[in-house]
Amino acid sequence: MTARGIVLVARQEIRTRLRTGRWKALLAAWFVLVNGLGLLFRLALETGGGSSADRPGIPMFGGVLLGVLVLMLLVTPALGGQSINGDRERGTLATLQVTRLTPGEIVLGKLAAAWGTGLVTLLLTLPVLLVPVVEGVISPVRAQAVLIVTALLIGVVCAISQAWSALLARSITSVLMSYITVFVLLAGTPLVYAIALQLTGEHRPGRYGGYTVEHSERVWWLLSPNPVVVLADAAPRLPKTEIFVGDQVIHRSPSSDPLGELSRSMRDIRRGGRTYDGLTYDGRQDEGGRTHKSRRDEGAAVWPWGLAFDLALAAGAVALTTSRLRTPLHRVPRGVRVA
Which of 159, 200, 219, 250 could cross-link 196 (Cys pair, CB 3.0–4.6 Å)? Predict the structure, then answer.
């Protein structure tokens, strides 16, 4: 497997996409839609008042980025969901397989074309995302980190969609399964976590008849592969603001930061408690029925586990796709056109 073979396949795939689709019109519509909605969201933050009116760039950056991530994950399955079986249906895949190109080169080349298209779509959202960076409320390091994580998550979905395209004979079925996979990652993981959390409930006797403690620290890992959780927890922390109360100085995290709030909530789930004003309420109660509280740190990060799981899933998808393109074929699935 060589880089030249991967580049040849990717170049050919991109040329085919440009010839068969109205990509310029679609990309222009995406640019106007995302940036227009982002600017309207900024205008609403400035005119709506509240705690975010003084620094609207913080909630604007987090809100727009989370919206862009969800939209990208909904668009990405269409980029790779028919890259293999679509060529089979058109009778062009066999032409590549009889050349000196290896199955790995074909798979990685097609994946690079789909992923590259997704990255171009992500780049078109930069104008509205860079507004808070230019204003100075979001550091370039934070913006770069979240954009890299978003790009990796797009690649993960492209690889999974391509694997479905290699497994299933019909392109419409593979695209549908790709959307179901994205739905499972986005909405299925919170649902499974909520069900598993109920199973961890432990009844403890108390002064007023007892209470139930749920151990989220046992099932937090079910939420870690969620792309929204990975993105929010991977974002570097914003600097805490200083609030003077008499002679005391209280350091508080920005309350209008969507990424920071999601990250703190997820780390509290992993720790098994909730934090308010620097105190962690871990669910335990004393004899008087009062909830136990103690001072703790922010907890261990969740995103390395989630991102590692997603990348391993993508690597497995690439390996599976490669195995499906090896020749000669000893058995052709029903309904599959070879040439």
Answer: 219
